[in-house]
Amino acid sequence: MTPPLSRTSAHATPGKLRVSELLFEVPKDYTNPERGTIQLFARSVGRHEKPAAVPTEEDRRKRAQKPWFVYLQGGPGFGCAAPQNAPITNFILDKGYQLLYLDQRGTGLSSPITAATLALQGDAHRQADYLKLFRADSIVKDCEAIRKTLTLEYPAELKKWSIFGQSFGGFCVLTYLSFHPQGLREAFTSGGLAPIGRTPDQVYKATYQKVIERNKAYYLKYPEDVEAVQSLCFHIKSKSGVPLPSGGVLTVRGLLTLGRNFGVHGGLDFVHDLILRAKIDLAQFQFISRPTLAAIERALTFDDNVIYAILHEAIYCQGVSSNWSADRVGRSFREFQWLTGSPQSASAVRDGPLFFSGEMIYPFLFDVFPELQKIGPAADIVAKFGDWPDLYDEWQLARNQVTLYAATYIDDMYVDYGLAQETVKLVQNCRQVITNTMYHDAIRSKTDDVLEALFALRDDSID
């Protein structure tokens, strides 16, 4: 691990933040450092202070050495927002921390994985071998390497840091607690209690049930969309797919993956708006306009976040292959029989409401989006790979001494509540805020509510 390659400070508004952009060089493969390095990007954030008197060097050093609070984004495959746009920034800074927003390896500006950058690795097998290095185990090792670098000259009581994981970031927190708890002072998760010990098939059997519930809620709120979705699917089927602005193809099955939005605040309304736009276009013009197609495409494509599409099932794998689990499990549900047959087949369109899928990745997505098409062979190799190392140490978690504060959502469509409670039983010193008034993205939609509840739990101030 080398020191930061560069550090560029800038003052951002609003909020008078002091933001430093950091680059780090870390091993590509921690089990074989000879394979070379990759570059990581992070932003450190503190308050921009203007003291009344000129500070001494010792004053500057002490002000700079506040306890670190690290944010790990959900995903996998998404970088962090700029600090001034991240909802937790001001709340956490007001608690006396300095923040580190880390773009996890392969995301954001951290050696991003795209079809083009992946092609640099060679053929599909080499690409798949490279992709295997981008799971939570490697992400946590990156965090530890960065922690040791940033706190090298810190006093002993400040060398440990606090960590917050949203969704997949919470999965990384549990990996951190499993293998490197000595680096942590405290840990927080939001919708991030991974289903430890469960196979991908078991995970999807549970999450499909919640997706069915959300579909029923959607059609209860928008009963007119039963016919609107059917009509839109018949239109797409009659055209054998509709070309999308960036070169992809809108198929019936592709459209029905819009339900991944059902698990967030406002998600039902978001999907309805897209269906309404298409419905009005068809009524006026007998075709779907480019702006509507562009909006649908933005909601569907993973071309700018290919890690999500490739590794989404792998985040559940320990010693087993996923083998396109969501696709196989989904076909066992009557509500998702549209997964069978070709993308525009008659079996995809039937009487009654068509149910949308949720946070599931299917192999057919690699046939209809340009960037995913290029990496389809590597994705198939990853899906069939079974020799995944463990992501969690249940023995260590049962003896965990770092308190974990978890915000858990009963109506979470992405991280099943029942499986999350099984995980809680495996982790010593786990304390929860449990609510049925928030959805999975509450850290963005109801930021203060989530953070105030978690810190009240930490500070024992609930009474």
Automatic annotation (TrEMBL):
**What family does the Swiss-Prot or TrEMBL record give for this protein?**
Belongs to the peptidase S33 family.
Say which species the protein is native to: Glarea lozoyensis (strain ATCC 20868 / MF5171)
Q: What is this protein called?
A: Alpha/beta-Hydrolase
Xref: Gene3D superfamilies = alpha/beta hydrolase
State one Pfam family annotation. Answer: Abhydrolase_1
Q: Respond yes or no to whether keyword Hydrolase is given for this record.
A: yes
Coiled-coil features, chain-numbered ranges:
none
GO MF terms here are: peptidase activity
Alphabetical list of InterPro entries matching this protein: AB_hydrolase_1, AB_hydrolase_fold, Peptidase_S33, Serine_prot/Carboxylest_S33
